[in-house]
Specification:
Length: 380
């Protein structure tokens, strides 16, 4: 039977206090500030912003601190806050061709207009633990205030100027645009001129058009998309991708106020964009050409953007006349399980009281066991 639990409120309040103590850790160590998280754990901040559907580095850093570094919990916190904000309008489509580049590479062409820009990346590191970082921690714990050498008068010497680096032009031609000029790359056309839907306001229904799929993928769980994208490379889809271009940088956001009638720049976003080029496709009407997948995420989310592009291409199976033979090509399977907030809630709800349900199952199993024992006696 169900037994009412008394004193639950006091126990919950004690749990809150224990949680706060766990989050703070050793009080002899300086508290981690939101500013430190924002500046030094920027990739974690970028993931929380992407999957939380809100571009605000400070609030994302706050959520990470409040969640003790649990990024999924931080995403939940940020998305919950997002629901309280008013919708002031819709921006114009981002023109990522005018991105102020931080990083730009192509795995399809060695020589590209504007050049390759490696930028900040772990791609060329050796993945060895850097124990020098422990020394930094020791210096901080010892209260060292100056890790920089100074001159006799206590002034830090001027650093030698860095070697000149040829930066790309603010705007460089996309690789895909070069292929399109020769007719080698498809140019997907929207089904109609209607504005795209908004999954933050309306539930995702199936079948979903590509605009809705991309929205769902953009805030989908990175781990899930990575697994789905990986599966397409292992043969669980008709996919043989090339990273046509990966861009990271800052792009302006423009809004067209009703009272003005023209676009105004309201700020910049840091984004990572990936355009995958896939194997040939053609028919009697359309000559052989490359197809493409697309990914876009906030900040330095290169792995997420690449996985998103792989999955986007796989989900275009029906559109391109390909048979659906793999999980990554099933839009309902992929998109229904991509949202980590929903997934986390559904899994963790199992921690809530299910006393009545379990008692019913328990009584049923006991009855079935009794019937089984009785039937064995009759056979004997």
């Amino acid at each position: 039977m169900y037994v009412a639990v008394k004193g639950g409120a006091a126990a919950i309040e004690n749990s809150w206090r224990l949680l706060e103590a766990q989050r703070r850790g050793d009080t002899a160590i300086a508290a981690l500030s939101v500013r430190q998280i924002r500046e030094q754990l920027s990739l974690a901040v970028d993931r929380v912003m992407s999957e939380g559907s809100l571009y605000d580095p400070e609030l994302a850093a706050l959520a990470i601190k409040q969640a003790s570094g649990d990024l999924m919990e931080a995403i939940f916190l940020l998305r919950a806050y997002r629901t309280t904000l008013p919708r002031l309008g819709y921006s114009s489509p981002l023109d990522t061709a005018r991105i102020a580049l931080v990083r730009r590479i192509s795995a399809a062409f060695k020589e590209v207009p504007g050049g390759q820009l490696l930028g900040p990346t772990y791609d060329y590191t050796q993945r060895l633990l850097d124990f020098a970082l422990l020394a930094e921690d020791a210096s901080a714990d010892a209260g060292c205030t100056s890790a920089v050498p100074t001159t006799a008068d206590g002034v830090a010497p001027t650093a030698a100027p860095a070697a000149a680096v040829d930066l790309p032009a603010p705007t460089v031609l996309r690789i895909n645009d070069l292929l399109k000029r020769e007719g080698l790359l498809e140019t997907p056309q929207p089904a109609d001129s209607a504005p795209p839907g908004d999954i933050t306001r309306d539930p995702l229904m199936f079948p979903a058009d590509r605009a809705l799929r991309l929205q769902a993928l953009a805030r989908g769980d990175e781990g899930w998309l990575l697994a789905m994208g990986y599966s397409t490379q292992r043969g669980y889809a008709n996919s043989h991708p090339f990273a046509g271009e990966i861009r990271r940088g800052f792009v302006s956001v423009e809004l067209v106020p009703d009272e003005l009638g023209f676009a105004i720049d309201i700020g910049d976003l840091e984004v990572t964009e990936c355009q995958m080029i896939n194997q040939f496709s053609g028919s009697r009407e359309v000559p052989p050409q490359f197809t493409q997948g697309y990914g876009l995420a906030f900040g330095g989310a290169e792995r997420k953007a690449m996985a998103m592009a792989l999955v986007d291409r796989a989900l275009r199976a029906d559109e391109l006349g390909e048979p659906r033979v793999a999980p990554a090509q099933d839009e309902e399977f992929v998109l229904s399980h991509a949202d980590n907030v929903e997934a986390s809630g559904f899994v963790q709800h199992l921690k809530l009281p299910h006393y009545v349900d379990f008692q019913a199952e328990l009584e049923l199993v006991r009855k079935l066991r009794a019937d089984h024992a009785e039937s064995k006696k009759e056979l004997a």
